[in-house]
Amino acid sequence: MKLAMIGFGQAGGKIVDRFLDYDDRTNSGIVRAALAVNSAKADLMGLERIPQENRVLIGQARVKGHGVGADNELGAEIAEEDIDEVQNAIDAIPTHEVDAFLIVAGMGGGTGSGGAPVLAKHLKRIYTIPVYGLGVLPGTDEGGIYTLNAARSFQTFVREVDNLLVFDNDSWRQTGESVESGYGQINEEIVRRFGILFGAGEVTGNQDVAESVVDSSEIINTLSGGGVSTVGFASEGVELNSSGGLLSRFTGDDGGADDLDAANTTNRITSLVRKAALGRLTLPCEIEGTERALLVVSGPPEYLNRKGIERGRKWLEEETGSMEVRGGDYPQKVPEVSSAILLSGVTNVPRIKRLQQVAIEAQDNMDDIQAESEENLEELVEDDEDELEPLF
Ligand code: GDP
C-alpha cells in the first residue's frame, strides 16, 4: 500500500529516511511521500533521503531551532501552535494517491513524543484515509524521564491514531555496541518488518503476481478497530545454484520427487510461520487474545506454497484465538523466504504495564525532588531569624 510517512522528531525522521532507502533498494513502492518534522534544526539537516522541501522546522519562536530537550509537553504545545506549517507541507504531497498516513516517532523524547499525537489528531479531523502511528519505546536503561515520556505519549498516541504499531528498542538492544551503530541495525529491522507488510499490498506490474495477493484493503481491515499492534518475522535463506537460478535449501532440492519437495516446502513454511509468531516481536506480548492478524509469506514465487500458507494461517487462528486471520503471499526476487505476521489489537502486554509502573515511580520521585529542592532553596536564601529584607 502507498503511504505518506511523516517522521516526527529525531528518531522518526531517521526511520523514515531508512524507509526511503529500503523503498529504493527493494522497489517496494510503499513511500509515496516522506516528510520530517522537528524542532531541532541540526536533526533535520542530518537526514539523508527526505527532500529538503519536505523538512519542516517547528517551534522556532519558542526554541529557536534547538529542540525541546525531552520536554514532551512543550513538544505537544509547539506542534499545536505550528500545525499550519506542517499542513502546508502535507498540502504539497499528492494525498489522493495515498492509502494511509504513517506517523513515526520515538515516544521517549520530546518533539516526536509530544508532537506525533497532536499531528494524528489533526490529520484524522481532515482526511478520511487511515492515520497510523509507528511508536518506538525507549530502552529501559534510558532513564526515568524517557520512560515517563513514553508512557504518557503511548496513552495519547493510541487514542489519536487508527492503530498504533509499536517497536520496543529494549527488546532489540544489543550489548557492547555504540548507541549509533545499535540504532542503525535496529532501524534496518524496523524497515524490513514493516516494509514487507506494507509492501505486500503494493505488488507492481514488474513483479510476479502473487497467487493469493494481499491487497491494501486487507492490511487496512487488519488494522481497523484500533488498538496496538506488533509484528513477528522469520526468514530462511534459499541458495543460488551454479547457473544463477535459485536452488533450494528450503525445498530440499536434492533431485527427489516433486511431491516430496512440495510436502517439504509446506512444512518449512508452516514452521517459518510458527517461528515468526513465537520469536521476537516488535513489541513483546502474549499472542493469545489478539483480535486480528495478517500473515504475509514472501520470497521467490516457486517457494510460496499455498498449502503451507493456509496451514500457517490456521495455526495462527488457533494460537491467537482470533476469527479474523488473513493471509497471502508476496512474491519477491530475493534469496530468502520470509514470514511476517501483523498481530493487531493485542492486549496482554506486560511490557507496557511495567513501563507504566516505572513511569509512575519516576513521576513521584520527580515531584518529591522538586518539592524538596524548593524547600532547600528557601532554607538557603532566607536568614534564620528573618532579619534581612529583600530589596523589592
Ligand atoms: P525527539 O527528537 O525529541 O523527538 O527525540 P528523539 O527522537 O531523539 O528520541 C526519542 C527516543 O527515540 C529515544 O529515547 C530513543 O529511545 C529513541 N531513538 C532515538 N534515535 C533512534 C533511532 O535512530 N532509532 C530508534 N529505533 N530509536 C531511536
Supply the key terms.
392 residues; Rossmann fold; ten-stranded mixed β-sheet; 46% helix; Tubulin_FtsZ_GTPase; nucleotide-binding; GTP binding; cell cycle; cell shape
- What small molecules are bound in this structure? guanosine-5'-diphosphate
Listing every helix as H and every strand as E from the N terminus to the C terminus, the arrangement reads: EHEHEHHHEHEHEHHHEEEHEHEEH
| Cα radius of gyration in angstroms | 24 Å
> Between the first and last Cα atoms, what is the distance in angstroms?
65 Å
Q: What is the domain total for the residues?
A: 2
Largest sheet: 10 strands, mixed
Please describe what this structure looks like.
This protein is an alpha/beta fold. It has 2 domains: 3-200, Rossmann fold, CATH 3.40.50; 216-344, 60s Ribosomal Protein L30, Chain: A (2-Layer Sandwich). It is built from 13 helices and 12 strands. The protein has helices at residues 9-26, 41-45, 60-63, 72-81, 83-91, 111-126, 144-160, 169-172, 179-200, 216-223, 258-278, 306-320, 350-381; strands spanning 3-8, 31-38, 55-57, 100-106, 131-137, 163-168, 228-237, 239-240, 246-247, 292-299, 324-331, 336-344. The strands form 2 sheets. A 10-stranded mixed sheet has the order 3-2-1-4-5-6-7-12-10-11, sandwiched between helices. Strands 8-9 form a two-stranded antiparallel sheet. It is globular, with a radius of gyration of 24 Å. The termini are far apart. The model has no long low-confidence stretch (mean pLDDT 91). Bound molecules: guanosine-5'-diphosphate (GDP). Guanosine-5'-diphosphate binds next to helix 1, helix 6 and helix 9. It comes from Natrarchaeobaculum sulfurireducens. One of its GO terms (cellular component) is cell division site.
